[in-house]
Sequence to fold (217 residues):
Amino acid sequence: MKSHIRIATYLALTPFLLTSCATTDQKTQDAAVGAAIGCAAGALLAKVTSNDVGTACAAGAVVGGIIGYQRARNSEIEEARRAADAAKSVEGAKSSPVQTDTVKVTDRETGKTETVQAFKSVSVDIPLSQVDTQDGREAMRKLNDYARKVATERGETVDMTIAVPSEKVGKTKVAAQQTREAAGKGAVVRNVVIDPRTPANVQRVTIEVKNPARLEV
Fold:
């Protein structure tokens, strides 16, 4: 009977544990969500196996913390793909595959390490002739929204580069410039650059973040 009460207590405390994360960045909250889920799963496992609920909860939280971080990164990658696919609805637009970094995530208490693929960058080429069309503006809106979301949830700086070919500078009067937009505790830094590697008649939009090679959660 006592074990039933303990399990109920752990599950009841979960919302309060998550609420207490409100002052942390979203990335940490995502890890905490995984930890809470892991704790609940550990408690239920303890009930079935007659093991100590507290110990099982701690073990579940260890696994959950890493899982939470992994879920957050997987979500970023999937949302990047959706933003790029939406931009491809513009006539003549093309996108490159989403690029990722490998991050080794370690639980600081146990030393357990998992390898996680984290979003690194995504690029979309939008024909200059389509930039000011309704579809072109909508594609840029979705790319901007994605950049803001990542910056807000990570609490970090996200780089958004808009590159145009050098041969079009004179005709379009594009000048190199930089702007910075706050996004939660993070920011989106937008750079308009002249890049001779950019295909003719195209505006290349690249969203990029910096990931650590190793991280403790």
Summary: The chain is about 45% helix and 25% strand. The chain has a mean pLDDT of 78. Residues 2-70 form one domain.
